[in-house]
Structures are given as structure tokens and as C-alpha cells.
Amino acid sequence: MRIHNKSLNITFWNANGIKKRKLELHDFIINHSPDLLLIQETHLQPQDNFFLPNFHGYRNDRINPLQSKAAGGTAIFIKNHLPYHHVPTPPLQHIEASIISLNLPNLHPIIIASIYVPVNSDPHLFTIDIEAIMQLGANVIMCGDYNAHHMQWKCNNNNARGLQLLNFAIKTDLDIIAPNSPTRYAELSSDHNPVELTFNFDYLIPTDNSNIFTNWTLFTKFLTSIHAKPLPTINSTFTLDEEINKFTNDLLTARRNASKPATNDKKPWTHPNIKKLLQVRNKAKKKWQTTRNPNDKTILNRIHKNIKKAFKRYSENKWKETLEDLQIEDGSFWKMTKRFKLPFTKMSHLQGTISTAIKDQDKAELIAQNLENQFTLNDISDPMQEYIETRRRGLKPTHKSFIIWHVLMAAYFLFNSFSKGDSIPQNFNIVDLSYVFDNTTIYWVTEPTLKLNVTHNGTLPGKNY
């Protein structure tokens, strides 16, 4: 992967419903190429599917069964080639947020949050939630719609939430960044304008490799020339990790040498006629923001309606053309079917025995540990069987094999001795019963019973038994 210095472009926007402005958003992405796109008021529900090409997206939808239609919600989209991981949103009471951690090389992780503070939230307690997000990392960037008005950031007036936010920023030594004018771009049809932030950090950022062409024949030849030598001997985990790193670098080098930039043949997402309507709308919007004349607002609303109708017609015609072009012979029909049957799913967090794996490295370690446990031999030892084997190995090698008639003969002589009052044959008791004792554990004869039979050696004192 090629790496070079580049500034980081973050754009945030209150969309006021993102589904109905998807085509317009695509056109905005092509023209301005943001690295991260933070959306507020997405108005999405859990069953809604929404994605942007070449972006990974995370969102938090507002779930309120008392509302008849979707409202609120936040989302954050990050380009595929950027190293990052999703951060679970902490429990929040007064604001909505979607959060990721940007993990750039040679730089501490940067927590980036898409923030939306509802108008009806408590204007004095919402900073508690902001402080909770600040605890997620040392470097935190929170962009979004705070509904906090203050002339400090070029608003026409102050409100309670704006005063609270300013006081909180002063106490916690936070920097509030706001544009010098109400708008930077006036190209989207929401009531809010998008804001672009550019950070010129001194760091290296991976290049997007999605627009390159790779000659795989040349790639194979280059990789074969590198690994023509015999395979190395691996006798330790350190050597294994070292060889894996070497092989990974060889793969990246081979791909870089066998690739070249692809021709940029992107087609505009919007029709030229719609672009003209957008230009007219931008002028009307700028005029209304300057004059605040109700007539200018009426003209702007009329243009908005015309743009919505034009986008709807354009979307329907484009979908109709796509369906008409589907063919069974070239496989396009089955590819389209697969897109609907198998929607793209991101790898979620992995729950370990001790903690939750969020970062890619932690996930890899957890999967490796799980595989190691799966391929470890099970402990199938039986304590009783081990006890028997230990007793068997403890038998003296001079002992004769145990024969069942030893038990019968011992019982016969013992019975006669108890009956007649004669002395027990000591030699028989010592020799023959020792065979029984030494082999009891093998044939599951309990020791307490055995001890009762061999308690006395010699002549019995009387016949009171």
C-alpha cells in the first residue's frame, strides 16, 4: 500500500433525512472527496439499508415506538483505505452519537464522533454526555449539530445550550471550531449546510488503492523471483512472525510494482439538467439567507420541490435502465440477485472470556486463541482408572497371577476355622490371601471388606463369633 502525506478532510452535515437525498449526497462526495462524512438526523430505522460506495458506515438510529415516523439518528462514514475501528457508543442520556477511532501510522488514535443534540434535550445536562465521549481517548474530535447558538461562533443570537457549551469548553480547555460565515457550501437541499474541516496533521496516510489496475501475470513473476529460494526453517514463534512480515512485505511490493493507476471514468451521479437546477437553487438560497425576505423563501421552497421531483424521475429512469440491461448470459442478472440476497455485513465486535475485542489486532489475537483451544487435545483422564493403573504397577513382580479359586479356598478354610474353633492356617492366610489383596483393585473388590477378612492372624480366642 502506498503511503504519503495528506491532509484529513472531515465533512459533517445535518441531512434532515438522508434516504431522500442519497443521489445528491453521491454527487457531493464526487465533487469534494471527503475522507470522513459525519451525518446527523439520518431519519433511518433499523430495517433500512443505507451504504455509500467506497465507504464503511456505522450508525445509531433513534428508536422511539411513540413516534409515527423516523427522526433523529447519527451516522459516520469513513473511506475504506483508512485504518480505523468502530467504538461502541457509551450510555448517553441527552445526545445521540456514532463514534470511530482513526488509527493513523505514527500517530496516537483519534476519536471522531458524529454528534446530534436534539432540540428538546436538557440545555444544561447535555455536556455530561459530551464529557463521557471525551473519556474515550486523548485526542477527540466531535462534529455535528449541537443546536447551541452563540455569537462566539457566528450565530445571530445566544441560547441556553450555547451558553452552557461555551462555559463547558472554557472549563475543560476545549477548542470550538466554527466557520467564519453561516455556510461554506450551499449545495445540499437540507435546511442545514455541510461544513468541511481540513486537518493538516504531520502524519502518513495510506493511499486509496481502489483506482489502480494490477497486471497479475507480472505480479506472479515478481513474487516467484523473490521466493525462488528454499523455504526457511521455522522453529520458534519469533521466526514465524518474522517470516510472515517478510512475506507480507513481498506481497505488497509485488502488487505495487505490477500496478498502475486506472483511468478515472467516473460518471456524474446527477443529470446535467438537475445540476442546473441545483445551481439555481444555490443562488436562491444564498439570496434568502442574505435578505430573509418571505418571497425569496417561497421561491426557494418551490425550487426544492422541483429538485425533488427531478431526482425522483432520474432515480426511477436509472433503475429502469439497469433492470432492462440485465442478462442471464453474461451473469449480470445473477450478480444483481446476489446483491439483494446477501447484503454487505461488517465484522462486529468479538466477545472474549475476559473482554470485548474491538481493534483488528485484538480480534486476530482472540481468533488465534480460540483456534488454539479448539485444536488442543482434550483432557480425557479418568481418576479411577489412573488409581487402578497405579495400584497395578505397584504389585510385586514375584506374585503369582490371581486365580478365583484362591478366594474360594480362603473362604472355605475361614468358615471351617470359625465353626470348629481351630486356628486359621497362618501360611495360607499370609500367602493365598495376599494374592487376593494385591489384586482387589484390579477386580473391583473393596478394601473394607478385605480388611475384615484379614484382621486376625493366628488362633481365634473362642467361639463367641
Automatic annotation (TrEMBL):
The lineage of its organism: Eukaryota, Metazoa, Ecdysozoa, Arthropoda, Chelicerata. Keywords: Nucleotidyltransferase, RNA-directed DNA polymerase, Transferase. This is RNA-directed DNA polymerase from mobile element jockey. The gene is jockeypol_196. The keyword rRNA-binding does not apply. One of its GO terms (molecular function) is RNA-directed DNA polymerase activity. It comes from Caerostris darwini. Pfam families: Exo_endo_phos. The keyword Transferase applies. Residues 13-185 form the Endonuclease/exonuclease/phosphatase domain.
